[in-house]
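3.2 Worked example (two chains)
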Amino acid sequence: MPTMWLGLSIFLLSGAALAYEVLLMRLVSIIQWHHFAYMIISLALLGYGASGTFIALFQHRLLARFYRAFAINCLLFGLTALSGFLLTNRIPLNPLEVLWDGKQLLFFWVIYLLLALPFFFAANCIGLSLALFKDQIHRIYYFDLIGAGAGALFVVVLLTLFYPVTCLLVLASIGFIAAAPLCLTTASKKTLLGAAILISCAVLLPLSFPRGWLGLNISQYKGLSMAMRVPQARILTERSSPLGWLAVVDSPAVPFRYAPGMSLNCLQEPPPQLGIFTDGDSLNPITRLADNGSSLEYLDCVSSALPYHLLEKPAVLVLGAGGGTDVLMALHHQVGSIVAVELDPQTVALVGQSFADFAGHLYSRSDVEVFTAEARGFVRSGKERYDLIVVSLLDSFSASTAGGYALSETYLYTVEAMQEYIAHLKPGGILAITRWLKIPPRDSLKLFATALQALERSGQERPEQSLALIRSWKTTTLLVKNGELTLEQVDAIRSFCHRRSFDVVYFPGIESSEVNRFNLLDEPYFHTGVMALLGPQRKGFIDRYKFYITPATDDRPYFFHFFKWRILPEVIALKGQGGPSLMEWTYPVLISTLLQALIAGAALILIPLRFLAVPKDGYRERGRIATYFVSLGLAFLFIEIAFIQKLILLLSHPVYAAAVVLCAFLVFAGLGSNFSRRLSDLVSSGQGPRSRSPITIAVTGIIVISAAYLAVFPMLFRYCMTLPFLLKVIIAISLIAPLAFCMGIPFPLGLSRVAEKMPDLIPWAWGINGCASVVSAVLATVLAIHLGFNVVVATAALLYALAAFCFRNYPD
């Protein structure tokens, strides 16, 4: 029987492993970019699959020395969690060179190996426990899931309190702590001393580890690295939270001049600026504000100033206020009132407190209200209406133009988001969205198509009369009016663009002779695309277009996904002429990750079969086992990932949604696992429905609850968005609890059957589930991009049904 001390060790180790996974995502996002973090960590998690293969091959030797093997693997988790990342941080990886530098592929595989080791050792502990205590599988899985759920919250707390590298030391020390309870299974002086030594090592590791070894080797192509190569540039201060690592940089020798797409006709220079870099990229300036505001003339020379020439003293809502550039622009144009919304409270504190004197106490002015909130959630939950809503350049230029956000879901640029923005405009009010310019056109056309569809859904009879689009040499600005643009406003657009040498792309009544006059292109690509979107063959144009410009929706919120496979041969052919800039290359990276996970997972599943002794009549049973645990591994994460994305809308914040969903799913699934034996006993004793197996009962619950949620979520969210945050968290947990409880039952019941029929295959089944979970994380994203989250959940329900069919006669 497993002792409570062993359960405590499993709890601690599972929590540390999940927290380490999340922390690695943050660390690799800082060093490289978040999409490479996604790929690297996904494949590193194959350590779980490798663990199943390893135990299946050597289980008899390991089980004979269980407690020693368990403790050693705990220690190795802690050691490799720290050393693996430190070595990874020193590998000269440059993902941008993978297409033409073979060494980079080698570096990738070395990184996979180093980062997979901690997961391999943690999974060894769980797998060995499952193999030894066959009659207590439900309890072991319970401690595993409860621990992982606690780890999901713990890492958020850690990232709130400490810098990511300090969090790494804390999680590594938990490996030592997890080994300590095993010493207490036999209360001798020797084992008590061993526990004391392990705990002492855990305490001393974060306190005594040399901080000089923990510096992050940030990619030379990220904005912060380039800024710090300038003489006299220095970091003034740093801030860290789960939302990101911020660094404020002063560069007196070569000052920041952040004025995206500023007219070449403009004679006014920006005043001194400090640069805020998020995760080493995404420059967001704090601009010095003089008492008389005379230094802000340059803000009338950018494309995002256009709406201020169409409205008189508007009430303005700025979404994504950042360092305050758009707030300064509104002040310069003498608006009626300003409401500024910023997601990261650290940024607000930097502008409003740390550098308040430099910023002219911008966020303390009586005519500026600042709120810390997610933009979409703020708009949805408020009742106020505005004359102007501004959404301007909420992503970095380098990552955006390189396709770095292609795998990122965002609810800011969906059709439903546009409808909400329009609904919060006063009659005659304007929504202004500024984006980076891309050639050939991609997101500008996708944004135009999204706005067009939103206007149609909002009941605008002539949506083409409500839209205008202009471009500078680096940016585009789209205007969406709640009503039709007047002749006076059209003339104002013409005048604004002519004086600044900006190009008009579209406004009502535009003539082809008015486009492509200043920033010349070979063809008027933007205007041609917009006119095609306004024509009767819109769908055909979208289907034929070289890039994916179908409007994003809340079910498929991948606005930055533009890649189509048909462009790949052209990109390869133009490799030496800048061809890669045409490709949103993070999507091929995702597919590459999926293929690698499939190949590696298949190998890890098949290798043990050459060495494991299987009865002659056991090959059919082995196929059922493989199908069952592959289905569970895929389905569990399908639903988990889909719910994280769905609940971002309710909780208005990706970090909160991930923490709440992961914790709730894992904890309640753990409770379901603990109940699985009780359910099995009830069915066997005749107190439950004898005609159905406990697996079928659990799967029926999963399918029914999932279908009900898909039906009620849209309506439920509309009513719940205005509730207090704590109440929304309670609602989210209440929704997850019954579904997660049912989802925790099939795995221990299935593994118990394996223990009865073929106990030597327990580690193999554990490894299959791990491999399938890795594939599931990547495959769920691919399906969501193309088919939407509702299809992901429906697919998960079918996979659970397949699993129930495989073990439909349980128990025989």
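3.2.1 Second chain
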Amino acid sequence: MPRLPRFLVPVLLPLGALVSLHAADSAGWKQAGWGGGGFYWATAYHPTRDGVIYLGGDCAGVYKTEDRGQHWRLINKGISSYAVYSLAVSPAEPETVFAATEEGLCRSRDGGETWQPLPRTGPKELHLTAERDKSVRAVAVDSKNGKNVYAASPGGKVYRSVDGGDTWTVSYERKEEAGGASGLRVQFGKINGEYFGDFVVPVTFPKDLKPAEVSGLGFSLQGENSSLPKDSFLVLKTASGVAYRSRNLREVYQGNTWKDVVLRAEDFIPDPDYAKQHPEAFQSAPSPVWDSVVRLDLACSGNLPAEATTARFGRFFFAAGPAREPQPRLVAFRDLGKEPPTQKFGNLHFGAPQAGTVYSVAVSPLNSADVVAATHDSGLVLSRDAGRTWTVLDTPKKAAHATFDPGRPGVIYGAFFADGIWRSEDFGKTWAALSQAATGKTQMREIVVSPANPLDLFALGYLEWNGAFFASHDGGKTWKNSSTVAVDAAANPTLDSVFNGTAQLSAPRNLTLNPRNPKELFIAGNWRCCLSTDAGQTWKEADRGTDISCITDIRFSKGKTYVTAMDEGTLVSENGGDTWRQLWPLAHTPGLSGHNWRVAVTEVNGAERILSTVSPWYQVPTCVVRSDDGGKTFQVAKAGLPAKEIHANTMWGQGHPRALAVDPKDPQTVYLGVDGDPSDGHNGGGIFRSRDGGTTWTQLPKQPGSRRMFYGLAVDPTDSKRIFWGGSGQGGGIYRSEDGGESWKHIFPNENFVWNVHVGAGGEVYGMGQQLWRSTDHGTTWKQLTQFKEQRSIVGFEVHPREPGTLWVSATTWDSSSKGAVYKSKDGGATWSDITGNLPFVKPQVLRFNSATNELWAGYVGLYKIKQ
């Protein structure tokens, strides 16, 4: 990563103004984390520079190695998204690299050192994106002309560019008929990753209808014998903003005949979300007042990323006549067949069925006019005229990947998930299954042919979290499975699923071959990337520096640095991040392996007590790990903590123990925060207290008004009975207790999403929402310290312990974009400078200052530090 010139100096601007140039003291961010431990989805070799490999991860962007995987570095400058699911290097222009991300395509002209987002390729335009499990090899470049580029879309199309990616035209798309001409076909599901879909119908009360005549409203629809949603509700909104929700309508999608769905007053209740904030609104109108309705929202929810509910919708109407009348007069106010909705949200599609994903596309190295694409529902499709026309080949219908034999014209290989590996020797007219490549239900994802010997074939497959690599040296007649990886414990210190220095290949996603040395292979997959130099006979971990760990906390004690991470556990470094050692888990352990969220280190009787909070992957919803000897031994504590998973009113779908605070004056008193409301007879989350140093816990009988939270929990060091809690959503803000959690007062309603709370040594309180706020009177009054214009959240925060006027904040977004920054103030928040500098992941969620070394550490995706 290029360094900034030394002559740049910090610039201070008035309150809320932010610097567009990076300050000089920001040029020295250094990686302090380890490699591995996350999910890598894409990889590609440089075609001419030996040892250069590119790697893409699901949340960290792009990495580059120049020594065949011994060391890696992030190369994200200018990239639009950190979710990179496909990579391609131009054979004709070897320094040109394409990265397919969740936000669209990016191109680099300098070997990945800088990136340019390509215009109109985002999800709301051409949908030339790469997505999890929907992109195998989403970009292919003509080997002879680097201007000719093909891109596969999750939306079911192949696009072609003749100018290197600046502009695109549709080359292939599957044409489907909607089936029938009446009504509007609506598809809830299988469009994107959302778990809900919703469309809006504006309501105009018919002029020829008297309000007293109305006994209900409804709509007509025709099902398509599709799967039923988990839930479906019609929400009515009135002119005054009051909302009512219908009974669950999931059953109306059954069958395939037209029907009228009429809903009466008794079919509606006050909308629960609206009622929580406005209970008084329903005192005078417990049921809908029909002529006051101005908007309808019809929504479905459930496993919509994987399943679809489809139906045709016709008219929306009011029902006139007595409620008991079996066939009321229906007065339509909107016909969706003639006037479709203009507003829709979530996982929803209007019109003819949308074609399934195009997983990959490939160009023949022998003839640039030959292009093959792998689709979700049409198998392989082939073009012999550079994408002008296409032929659907007679293959299994769900195809992951296809490739041309680099030495024999007409030979095509395909990977077909559970149907295995197939080959054609006549441009796809006939096919033969190479069935030995797949065993059982293994999902074959990718096939690679050696350019040195066409009999050398390499295939990649997976079954859930297990992985399989297959090699054949006789053209696919026989195959050998080689899926054991020699781990590099120094590069990746995490010990989950390691046995005698080896691990099994886990969920591999991409296989690439060195064109200068076809015996050298590299695999991108889950937890460990690996390299083979003997044509796949043996594998060794090769991910030093591929820092993809989701760091959730950082603490310092007696020259050591402690961190917690999602999935990976709790680790310690005794040399400032040069090397790391796993504290727990020390093996794959049900009830312990999972997400570690917060860590606290205190000295008790001369020894270091370590506490970390955990959401195990399974068995125990929440637990606390405690060590009283600096991590040499530990115990899992769960007494008094929730015994059931919490889902109601949570930040990330499940209640996680993301908040931890030890009383600065009494290490035996510890507070723990778990988000989520009571439901289904369980007490939910909120604040828990331990009086014995974290071994046993009690849920506080009184809870703040919002239990939906992130990191917001702090004990005032000037008064142990004063506790602060940051809540989000309905009733969100900052709450204060003056009696050790026995009662709570809502003291900060300025923002209803508070991500973090900090109390300084002098009792000053900081709250982090979209802006940074400070109170110097324990929360009675507040001053806004930032005026950020971007829609971002401040999550990371730190105060210099010796210079309380020196503050740091990190601003982040909750998507995969690279829109974030780290800022510093030297005057208590009056002015700010941007110190993001060369930080390769610009959205850290944790900032901690090590006063012993004068270093600011930043963590979330990756771990970095800088002298301050």
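3.3 Remarks
The radius of gyration is 29 Å.
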